[in-house]
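Problem 12. The chain below contains 425 residues. Write out its predicted structure in token notation.
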Amino acid sequence: MTWAGHLPASREYRRILVGLGAAGVATFAQLYSPQGLLPTLARGLEVSPADAALSVSLATLGVALAVLPWSWVADRVGRLRAMQVAIIASTVLGVLVVLAPGIEALLALRLVEGMALGGLPALAVTYLHDEVHARHTAAAAAAYISGTTIGGAAGRLIAGPLAGIVGWRPALLTVAAVCAIASIVFLRLMPRPRGYRPTTAATVRTVADGIRTSVRDPALLALYAQGALLMGGFVAVYNYLAFRLEGPEFGLPATVGSLIFAAYAAGTVSSRLTGRWVPRLGRRRVLVAGTTTMAAGSLLTLSSALPVVVGGLLVLTAGFFAAHATASAWVGARATTGRAQATALYNVCYYSGSALVGWLLGYAWSGPGWGAVVGAVVALAVLAAGLALAVLPARSPARAAVTPPTGPGAVHAVPHDRRSGGGTT
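Solution.
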């Protein structure tokens, strides 16, 4: 009889949630900590806002470049072992970034660090589909994504205020230390894999076949577009809003302006709630609602009243993470074959959008100003919502197959061969 996966009542399930939550902290605190100190970094290295933002964009580009190779490595050595290698390598590189003598070396190290970090987001959701019972993967994926929001917020909130006091190098070193502790928690807690067996049959052709299957599915392509468009706009807002808050319009000191990243708490809550909303409302409805909420929040940030700007940031963040949690989990459920490559492609698009849009909108900020940034973000959200409504099914087969659809994981009741990773090998 095929093993069905860990259930919420088991000790292993709880260890997986805590371990992956710690991995989310370690990954995203490192990935986005420079975003919390971009104005300080730009002043310290005497570069433009767009050039400073490359410290974020090149790291996310590294993630985008690495997720497909990591999926191939994971097929051969196992999802968990690949994630363990990735988290150790990224922790070491996080310390080396602090020692970079100038902007060129820093950017090069950030690119390589992003490539190491790519092993975690590339494999975490696939790992959950291998190890957790299908009825509970939606709730488990939402818990993992909430851990990523905590990590993203922690990295920014530690680095930003500290940079205004002690400088950007000690601030990033502190983040690296926090990530090292989170990495140890991950390495100690994760249980032995039971749902997937590594195989040397995982060749480059296997990966290519998985990619080919994924790109032939219009629904998967639409989901990949959601990741690229929404993440690009989201990162751009957080990249450049700090410059606005520390500029003449608001005049906030760096230690105060960087506190905007506390708004990530809204994403922690909304990403967890999607596990409840999706079975009741359907994936597409939750996805479009999250996208619409994100656009509304970005428009609120046009205000010249600081409380309204902060409220808009909270709304935008909640909407984005609700949409992202829904789209990323939908990819894993939709891809009954080539799942590792399908989820890796989502991450390629997600982080490519972050890298490209997050950098390009720096020129919108330096030129026309904040209104141009918000206009671009709203346009990206409208395009994403239009694609979702035009291409994605209103009621997915995976959800309809669950009888009755009572639990959060009902949306992920997708039959697949756990030993083969859903047909990828």
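Discussion. The two ends are 20 Å apart (CA to CA). Students who got a different answer should revisit the alignment rule from Section 12.3.
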